[in-house]
Automatic annotation (TrEMBL):
<dbReference type="GO" id="GO:0016773">
    <property type="term" value="F:phosphotransferase activity, alcohol group as acceptor"/>
</dbReference>
<protein>
    <submittedName>
        <fullName>Xylulokinase</fullName>
    </submittedName>
</protein>
<keyword id="KW-0808">Transferase</keyword>
<dbReference type="GO" id="GO:0005975">
    <property type="term" value="P:carbohydrate metabolic process"/>
</dbReference>
<dbReference type="GO" id="GO:0016301">
    <property type="term" value="F:kinase activity"/>
</dbReference>
<dbReference type="Pfam" id="PF00370">
    <property type="entry name" value="FGGY_N"/>
</dbReference>
<feature type="domain" description="Carbohydrate kinase FGGY N-terminal">
    <location>
        <begin position="1"/>
        <end position="202"/>
    </location>
</feature>
<comment type="similarity">
    <text>Belongs to the FGGY kinase family.</text>
</comment>
<dbReference type="InterPro" id="IPR043129">
    <property type="entry name" value="ATPase_NBD"/>
</dbReference>
<dbReference type="InterPro" id="IPR050406">
    <property type="entry name" value="FGGY_Carb_Kinase"/>
</dbReference>
<dbReference type="InterPro" id="IPR018484">
    <property type="entry name" value="FGGY_N"/>
</dbReference>
<dbReference type="InterPro" id="IPR018483">
    <property type="entry name" value="Carb_kinase_FGGY_CS"/>
</dbReference>
<keyword id="KW-0418">Kinase</keyword>
Length: 203
């Protein structure tokens, strides 16, 4: 038995499948998005966790024996969002989502600080990506930026809550503007352009 979890922007979806990939149960728990200013889009990671627990509880209510026999959990989810954690692993502020455009000016700052970013990171800097969001936080919420010790994407944060491990996959890492896509590793220059080091990145 296996559980698949999709952490989407509009909701958390969970599906229970058997070894033949037959769907035994599925649940969706909706999420709300906050926009305190025009162009802003935020969610509280605690809401994702609560929705995940509710979704899995729904699977358990329908298929208790099958859920008890689960051998693994797979995750997919929205990219680019910035979950900022302090030294204790606690969330510092609501997650700035992929569709948040507040960091448009910071995209120019990023490319000015790291002129080779397009060739190294494989993308034009856009506000949907993660790196410009951190420059925005540094400029507008410096007390929060100073407390940042780890930056995770939404799916990686849920994995952290489930397992205690901070791990990112190569695909999602490529959407942060911090990955050297040719060398398939974090770029020290890209991180420096946002005031961070590899110590803040997941494995």
């Amino acid at each position: 038995m296996y559980i698949g979890i999709d952490a989407g922007t509009s909701g958390i979806k969970a599906v229970l499948v058997d070894e033949a990939q037959a769907v035994l149960a599925k649940r969706t728990v909706g999420l709300s998005t906050r926009s305190p200013h025009p162009g802003w889009s935020e969610q509280d990671p605690a809401d994702w966790w609560g929705a995940l627990l509710d979704a899995v509880d729904g699977l358990r209510a329908e298929q208790p024996a099958a859920v008890a026999a689960v051998r693994g959990i797979g995750l997919s989810g929205q990219q680019h969002g910035a979950v900022l954690l302090d030294a204790a692993g606690q969330v510092l502020r609501p997650c700035i989502l992929w569709n948040d455009v507040r960091s448009s000016a910071e995209c120019d700052v990023f490319e000015q600080r790291f002129p080779d970013s397009r060739s190294v990171c494989g993308n034009i800097a856009m506000p949907g990506f993660t790196a410009p969001k951190l420059i925005w936080v540094a400029r507008h919420e410096p007390e929060i930026f100073d407390a940042v010790r780890h930056v995770l994407l939404p799916k990686a944060w849920l994995r952290y809550r489930l397992s205690g491990e901070m791990i990112e996959d190569m695909s999602d890492a490529s959407g942060t503007l911090w990955q050297d896509v040719g060398r398939r590793r974090w770029s020290d220059d890209a991180l420096a352009a946002t005031g961070l080091t590899r110590a803040a990145m997941p494995a």
